[in-house]
From TrEMBL:
Residues 26-154 form the Calponin-homology (CH) domain. The keyword Cytoplasm applies. InterPro entries: CH_dom, CH_dom_sf, GAR_dom, GAR_dom_sf. The keyword Cytoplasm applies. Its main location: cytoplasm. It comes from the Eukaryota. One of its GO terms (biological process) is microtubule bundle formation. It holds the Pfam family CH. The lineage of its organism: Eukaryota, Metazoa, Chordata, Craniata, Vertebrata. Residues 207-279 form the GAR domain. Belongs to the GAS2 family. SMART domains: CH, GAS2. It comes from Lamprotornis superbus. This is GAS2-like protein 1.
Amino acid sequence: MADPSHIQSAASKSIRPFRSSEEYLEAMKEDLAEWFNTLYDLDIQVDTFLESLETGCHLCRHANNVNRTALDFQERHPEAAARMRVPQNEVVFQAKNVVPGSFIARDNVSNFIQWCRQDLGIQDVLMFETNDLVLKKNEKNFVLCLLEVARRGSKFGMLAPMLIQMEEEIEEEMRDQMADGTLGTGRESRDPQAGAYPSRARPITLCDLKNLDELVREILGCCSCPSQFPMVKVSEGKYKVGDSNTLIFVRVLRSHVMVRVGGGWDTLEHYLDKHDPCRCAALCECLRDPHPRAPHLGTALPPGS
């Protein structure tokens, strides 16, 4: 269950003037930092997230942990594993006295990247290069790659970041509803501890959806137009938006209101920036005049850009 203090502060933090693409990455880094800290008893901070991982040591150690978990899964569930890509090549790395930016650090990161590509088969669009981490050139792709690594590991029963747990909860809910022919209406009762795989390290933790509608309304209320962008609650955590009645899933992640979009996540603010005509117009005006007299929502790039 989400921390009530986080729930109460989510809207006020989310609707502050803020580049929504930056908040999108911030939410993911927070989630990944907590995940790494929980798995390996570390103390990675969000503000120094890349610096904490740039030697490649923690990354390679995690890769080998995924290998061990995957092989254990294969032994216990051979039929399920036969339909999955099971990584097993050990990642060789140096763990002691590694200086950030050194050849050894680069070699560690390169070995992790090679494992991601060859053993996990992660597609190039989600991959990063050595300099993206060592020289901090492409934070977004590094974060997206780590999330994909976590997503693959969760299939073998590893503890997953909260975003991945919420993905699995939504996907399971969609499967249940499609089987019942009720997609879009929602079943309000389900087992929150039901996982897709029998070896999950921790049950899926659902966020508190009771206050979600209030948060959504507050964020929508940033627009003062007489006719606001339509966003109608269908059931807990599900909304229809715009004239097309597109169905979206919304969740609270700590201080962020997140929207499930395609195969990934976005913040609700960034989603509205791209779909609410009023906000789109405000962003265009902000681009034309970088020093407006009244505060506008920040300019942003979509997560996939």
